Amino acid sequence: LAVASALATFLLVVIGGIVRVYGPDLGCSSCQGSAAALTLLPSFVETIYRVVATLALVLVSATAIDAWARFRQYKWVIVPSILALGLLALQFLLDAFPSSLEAFSGLMSAHLDSALLLFAAVVVAAAGARWATQPDRRFAIDFYAGLAIATSVLTYVLLAVGSYVTETSAAFACGNWPFCGNGFEAPTDAASSINLLHRAIAGLVTFFFLVLVARARSARPSDRELRVPLYAGLVLIVAQIAVGAGVVIWRVPPVTATLHLAVGCLFWCDLIVVTILSCLPLANEPIPRVSSSVGATALAYLNLTKPRIIVLLLITTVGGMVIAARGLPTLELIAATIVGGALAAGGANAINCYIDRDIDQLMRRTRRRSLPQGSVSPENALLFGLTLGAVSFAVFTVYANLLSAVLALAGLLFYVLVYTGVLKRSTPQNIVIGGAAGALPPMVGVAAVTGHVDLLAVYLFALIFFWTPPHFWALSLLTSEDYARANVPMLPLVVGEDETRRQIFLYSILLVAVTMLMVSGRALGVIYLVAALALGGGLIYYAGRLLRDGSNARARQLFMYTNIYLALIFLAMAVDRVVSLNL
Fold first, then answer.
1. What pTM value is reported for the model?
2. Alpha helices in 414-525 (DSSP H)
3. Backbone torsions φ then ψ of 188, nearest 5 degrees
């Protein structure tokens, strides 16, 4: 049943690709019982698509029922079987509104992306039924299995980007292969950029898969079943590269995109099988213990970038993009801005760790960072940070515009030179002035979309600038002993905790007043006004409780709330701009 479901789902994805070649809405509402309609190829294809969809529904449902009845103890079987039902329901829902899919850029790609997840779920169920139920298999994740998982995820990204290339008619944007021009010419527009990104990901997938093949004999010496899908994958990946190159070099007909999709899906199916076998080695398989030094080093460098801080900065960056565009910008611009913003923030944080390495080892909150632990040398940390900053500038310049690149670089330099290098150790107003660095990301997002900085971008800057003191001073109340040990003049140590709590309360009121400027200037409307008043009321409430109580618990509550506040108020701004209910 699971194998039959996988075959039916594969046909569903491929025939759906043919439907996309002729357009998402083929007007087949009169196909029932109409022999004349079948003489038209597009209508005939859609009729077959609906028949296969019905068959897939029956088979996937039967597989889920049988899995629930007999294999509930095997998570590899029951979980993907039930998940497939939900994904199939999503497919039918998306099929029911073809005109809505046309109206929103990217939703046609989302339709195919969810179909690929459905295909993956039924393949996992089939592979699980084949191998997870065997008594001589046991679950284990080592380096080889982790590499297989990473390759599978990257292949899904490759298929999703390829889907977007097809939807945006960017298949012929790059006139040469494997690069866009003669040699290493940079992309000249959005279409060629997304096309080149697709090819770059394909190169990574090919490299990772070749590593899987090369390491199979040493990592899984006795698992002969693994070799069949590995060698089949080699054939499929060569065929996929040949088809993709043929589309560009020989300008083969558009229907070849369906063949490209079919071979890609077969390769992904094959790779999922490889991944399942990698995660379920034979019980007597000697799993070599790979040195963790490479992984530990990678984690040490990742720790330098302070990923949790990056996430919050990226939320405000993407929020600024959506607000400026009054909707979702292009996928390639979002991806480029996220990558460039993450690199800029990571580079700034790595250089910050280099400068603060002497005090980080004195503070309990920071002594486990990579430099105090000796996981990374100071020179390498500095070089790493500078490299990330340089790559970020290149990404913004090539894929967005020069203004966004300059703003991102300005944020990095202000953070490491002005805040870390001067203000942090010299004045209790360090976080107030230094907050300008953290306020630049939404301006970067606006500049990436519009190519200029307007009054709305200034509003976004001001919001984060005045949000930073109550946020960071609440944290400093919890870590004042650390700062005292490191001799950093944070506000609680200079003016006392009572005055710090009063300053937090006053800045909270000031922040709420700043958020109202966006309404008075008619930059934002009713939805934002209601959200800003509600969120601002919560902020003043928590700041007031901290002012009265003064306990660490109240400080921690306010600190956590400020994170939620920032994310939700940016979400409210984005929704307001899209809906456009302006006062």
1. 0.54
2. 430-439, 441-450, 455-478, 480-486, 491-495, 497-520
3. -105, -10
